[in-house]
Amino acid sequence: MNKNEIIALKDEASNHLTNELLPFWTTRMKDEKNGGYITHFDKDGKDTGEDEKSLIAQTRCLYTISSAHRAGYGNGEYAELAKHGINFLIDKMWDNEHGGFYWMLDRKGNVKIDQKIIYGHSFAIYSLSEYTLATGDQRGVEYAEKVFDLIQKYCVDTMYGGYWEMFQRDWTLNGPGSAGGDRKTLDVHMHLMEAYTTLYECTGKELHRRKLLEDIDILNIRINHPKYKTGIPQFFKNWTIAPQIKFDIIWGWDRFSEEGEKGNATDNTCYGHNAEFAWLLIHALKILKIDPSTYSKTFKIIFDHTINNGIDYELGGVYVEGPHSGGVSDKEKEFWQQAEVLIGMLDGVLLFGDEKYWEAYKNVHRFVFDKVINKGVGEWYALLTRKGEPIWTHMGHSWKINYHTVRSMIQSIERLEVVLKKFD
Amino acid sequence: MNKNEIIALKDEASNHLTNELLPFWTTRMKDEKNGGYITHFDKDGKDTGEDEKSLIAQTRCLYTISSAHRAGYGNGEYAELAKHGINFLIDKMWDNEHGGFYWMLDRKGNVKIDQKIIYGHSFAIYSLSEYTLATGDQRGVEYAEKVFDLIQKYCVDTMYGGYWEMFQRDWTLNGPGSAGGDRKTLDVHMHLMEAYTTLYECTGKELHRRKLLEDIDILNIRINHPKYKTGIPQFFKNWTIAPQIKFDIIWGWDRFSEEGEKGNATDNTCYGHNAEFAWLLIHALKILKIDPSTYSKTFKIIFDHTINNGIDYELGGVYVEGPHSGGVSDKEKEFWQQAEVLIGMLDGVLLFGDEKYWEAYKNVHRFVFDKVINKGVGEWYALLTRKGEPIWTHMGHSWKINYHTVRSMIQSIERLEVVLKKFD
After folding, report:
1. Number of CB atoms found within 10 A of residue A240's CB
2. Measuring CA to CA, how many Å separate B353 from each of A81, A381, B1?
3. What's the sign of the alpha-carbon dihedral A117, A409, A350, A331?
4. For a Cys staple, B246 with which of A139, A381, B67, B256, CB 3.0–4.6 Å?
5. How crowded is residue A203: how many other Cβ atoms within 10 Å of its Cβ?
6. How far apart are CA B365 and CA B412, in angstroms?
7. A167 to chain B nearest CA, in Å?
8. Do B158 and A163 touch (CB under 8 A)?
9. How many Å lie between the alpha carbon of B224 and the closest alpha carbon of chain A?
């Protein structure tokens, strides 16, 4: 770890963020005609015309542009683009009758899927709070609190704890199985932690602090593997492990068999999620003003699991997933896992000062800049072979947008600056 | 069990209810000057002048008079008296700033204790729903739902399940120990079942049904003793048993040592609560349209525990409490336990057709009519010696009102009529 090396990596990230990544979106995403954001782009960055606006893509774009503005990028010009996005969310996606946001609209704003999906609502809280923190416009936190209140009212399992996740438009809980009404997931509980952190940062309210602390306990005590501290994807209501199934409402492309069940359905953990969980918890503790060393044993176990199993030391980058006890079952490379492991490894460096996390960071950084970034276009490929050949080549989609990539660069640059001061 | 015997008992109860008990209250309770109800009466039924109006006494009076109206008593005249009570609740006890009801006012309506106590709020939901069912006035259910929503938002422990119970005026959770902020109780979770049952009866909403079912699970799985099915009074947040302590905010007179802890602090169960739980659950299942035989093993264990341990076959009536595994530790007689065991034993008769529950009913009925009722005055003594000599002689107080006595008579008469048809 030397000064020039750190500076070089930081400059590479800064250049990518300010000259490639952010411009990719800010020059394309504004839907002047219908409001909100256009989110579907092919490998050349051309609008594919796909006629949908998903709750997660709209809220993630709002988060991205708000957070970039708050972090000082864009010379103050991003606030207007953020406002453009929140207007669409409030005017078109909000259900004035039952409360909450619709899951899917077409570009014009007509409702295509009216279910209330908590995964999407966690990003609503996250992005709306970030928007208020970035711009001062109180509409963000006003709607973030409306969503928070709806979740407390309709989604908590008051018997076993945790949240139900999939509902009809009127907040009637969905049926079991692929309808999702009898499952609890790592995904939702982790993104609620992320959302409640920023909500609490924005409001300072005791209630938001309390629910954040409870969700942190859910993640540590119920969701993470008791020994390996790795995330377990799906549970039944009483927190027994559920085989990983594909839901009717999806928010990503995942590889299931035709029967909709994973191979190794009950023994999968995902390196990107684990590293993301760790750094999000470190961030939550910072906002809560709790010493991160409270959980340092957990962080060490997670980061070591990541570097011992998730990093491809031969060809670079982060694998998809493997068993909790170690080893790899899927060696392809997903864009978002690279993004999250970058931040996680830098937190490992900052927390433990251990060179091995720095080596892992550099490995993934190199893989991202050499293979994942679509050169000359500016965004990242969604999925690559182990060697780094693009498989899915779209730049934007309802399930693949700017939140992981832009956040990874903003957060990594911030951490590299601290590393520079601390270890130089 | 013969026809004349049943009729004689039913007539005795009817006569007491219509000629003594209801008139005791309807001739005294209306506070013409300040609104709401006067609730403090000495052994002769004279207003003691005590300058307080408690949330539980006001809501319980509203329940009592509304339920009597709905059951057909009072020739339609009670609706007005119920309306008089709800007006005070809404105009004076409701906190327009933070939502929820204050715990204690003086007679004029000035706030004496502004804490938000869920025990009291369970009776708010119960009585406000009963009021709408009785009168059709929608203000009742409107405020019942407001309280329900506040409880979902502020009181659920989303990690371990169940509800937190004691809050500051602004719904900040109280501190630990006697402030109550780290305890979960049988009392609150049982009265929430009672409240949610009537709320669901009133609204038919899926959410209210769902939360009722979850609370039933909490009671059966967390709160009742796994073997004896007897209620355990207090728990810590993760449902380990907490020693029974006295809280700063009380809603009854209980006998604690000067240190505020019970003798046998971790091994007490109360016969009146157990019987009350059982019949309230039977009633809830009826409203939910679930066959009570789903829980018949539990009901049998509870009713047998009551008759094997709680009934004083020598001197009559129901003891206060004893260990879960059997035996009695406190042989005095509390009015409300008699009231609840009467209903429970009749449900035992109806569910199992077993003569032993009928014998227990008759025992307690006789004790109530011979010893507990304050003859010529019309209400019941609050506490008596084992032999039936009055110890606490007040007829009304913030912690001792008409809800148990009137409800016991209304519910017993209804059941005696069914017994008459079924077993005659």
Report:
1. 7
2. 73, 72, 10
3. positive
4. B256
5. 17
6. 10
7. 11
8. yes
9. 14
CA distance A81 to A303: 36
- Which pLDDT belongs to residue A422? 87
Interface confidence: ipTM more than 0.85: yes
Task: Give per-residue pLDDT as tens, A301-315.
Answer: 999 999 999 999 999
Among B159, B171, B207, beta carbon nearest to A171? B207
Q: Does A160 touch chain B (CB under 8 A)?
A: yes
Q: Rounded CA gap, A221 and A241, in Å? A: 13
Q: Which of the 8 DSSP states describes residue B327?
A: -
The answer to whether residue A194 scores a pLDDT higher than 70 is: yes
> Which stretches of B122-197 are assigned E, i.e. beta strand?
166-167, 184-185
Residues 6+ apart with CB under 8 A from A45: A24, A28, A377, A378, A379, A395
**Closest-CA residue of chain B to A162:** B158
Cα nearest neighbour of B209 on chain A: A172
Which residues from chain B sit within 8 angstroms of residue A207, using beta carbons? Answer: 153-154, 171
> How far B104 CA sits from the closest chain A CA (Å)?
24
Is the minimum CB–CB distance between B152 and chain A shorter than 8 Å? Answer: yes
Instruction: Copy the structure tokens of residue A295.
Output: 């959980």
Determine whether the interchain pair A152/B152 forms a contact, defined as Cβ–Cβ distance below 8 Å: yes
Q: pLDDT means per 10 residues in chain B (424 residues)?
A: 94 98 98 98 98 98 98 97 98 98 98 98 98 98 98 98 98 96 97 98 98 98 96 96 93 67 81 97 98 96 97 97 94 97 98 96 98 97 97 95 98 97 77
What does the block give as tokens for B190? Answer: 């049982």
Structure-block tokens of residue A100: 């909450």
Please write down the HEC assignment for all residues of A63-93.
HHHHHHHHCCCHHHCHHHHHHHHHHHHHHHH
Q: Could you tell me the CA-to-CA distances from A163 to A173, A278, B356 in Å, in that order?
A: 11, 21, 45
**A217, B159: Cβ pair inside 8 Å?**
yes
Report in angstroms the alpha-carbon separations of A157 from A116, B124, B285: 16, 23, 20
Number of H helices and E strands in chain B, helices first, is: 13, 12
Biggest alpha carbon–alpha carbon distance for chain A: 58
CB half-sphere exposure, A424, CA atoms < 13 A: 11
pTM of the model: 0.96
For tokens 């206060």, what's the residue?
B320
- Count CB neighbours of B170 within 10 A: 16
Q: How far is A222 from chain B (nearest CA, A)?
A: 9
A264, A268, A272, A274: CA torsion to nearest 10: 180
All residues at 6 or more sequence positions from B5 whose CB lies less than 8 Å from its CB, including other chains: B362
The DSSP output letter for A21 is I
Write the CB contacts of B116 (distance below 8 Å, at least 6 apart in sequence).
B95, B98, B100, B101, B102, B103, B154, B166, B167, B168, B169, B171
Residue in chain A lying closest to B145 (CA)? A153
In angstroms, the separation between the Cα of residue B61 and the nearest Cα of chain A is 29
Q: Quote the CA–CA distance of B208 and B202 in Å, as a whole number.
A: 10
Helices (H) and strands (E) in chain A, counts: 13, 12
